[in-house]
Amino acid sequence: MSKRRMLVVGAHSADFVWRAAGTVAAHTATGGEALVLALSYGERGESGELWKDPNQTIEGVKRIRHAEAERAAGAVGATLEAFDLGDYPLRIKDEGIDRLAELMRDYAPHVVLTHPDRDPFNPDHPAAHAAVATARQLTAGAGVASGFKTAPPSEFLVFEPHQPELCGFTPTVFVDITEVMPAKQEAMAAMGAQGYLREYYTQRADQRGNHARRVSGNSAIRQAEAFQRLIPNVVGTL
User: How many CA atoms lie within 13 A of 17 on its CB side?
Assistant: First the structure.
């Protein structure tokens, strides 16, 4: 049986770390394969600490952000790919969507994770969602035999945004990351350009762990990550 493949697409190179690194680590720890795709490096809008260096350059910021994301991906057992499409604003043209669809056809992920379609504070996140949703549709074709290469439809979920209530995010899935929380901590520690977010997302994992305990009755859960499923899953029985 082939490994179960997960694709995580972030608008910026650090997005997967805060929102899904624990889930990626849990996936790879049980034999799965994970690919993290950064559509941009967040070099303009999310790298303020790096720009405090008066000799800093845009290429220097990108190089640092790539290295940080690569270390973070490695900490959770994933591979990193970066499209470098630019940020604030992230404008994904047709060729970018085609490139993403081709990646999906080649990788054929079983599950795709990305941003929700709304974010009143960050225009890049909805742009990423729209591109991923379109590329995913193109990857699977029209649901009938197609005249071009396709891949089986994937599960499609969005990860928790920074302010879920303002983004229309309602959790439908909690992933227990208790055993792999140290890996998520290592991934977060790699993101030096945004170290100020570590405390917030550590607290968020604890809060979602509380919610997961209440939902499941499993008192062993300490940390969790939340997702919203966009496409129904199909099961043989309940």
Answer: 33
Confidence of residue 148 (pLDDT cuts 50, 70, 90): confident
The residue written with tokens 């490695």 in the block is 74
CA 223 to chain centre: 18
Nearest Cα neighbor of 193 from 23, 1, 42 is 42
pTM of the model: 0.96
Q: How many CB atoms lie within 10 A of CB 120?
A: 9
CA 145 to chain CA centroid, nearest Å: 30
Q: How many CB atoms lie within 10 A of CB 87?
A: 24
pLDDT digits (tens, 9 = 90+) for 199-208: 999 999 999 9
**Parallel, antiparallel, or unpaired for β 224-229 and 173-176?**
antiparallel
Mean pLDDT of the chain: 95
Strand stretches in the chain, DSSP E: 5-10, 33-38, 79-82, 111-114, 155-159, 173-176, 224-229
Burial grade of 147 (CB within 10 A; 0-12, 13-18, 19 or more): exposed
Measured distance CA(83)–CA(93) in Å, rounded: 12
Q: Give the distance, in angstroms, between the CA of residue 134 and the centroid of all CA atoms in the same chain.
A: 16
What H or E segment, with its residue span, contains residue 120?
none
For 179, phi then psi, to 5°, come to -70, -25
Please confirm whether the linkage preceding 89 is cis (ω < 30° from 0): yes
39 neighbors 9 (Cβ within 8 angstroms): yes
Cα 76 from chain centre: 12
Q: How far apart are CA 204 and CA 209, in angstroms?
A: 8
Of 101, 82, 77, which is closest to residue 182 (Cα–Cα)? Answer: 77
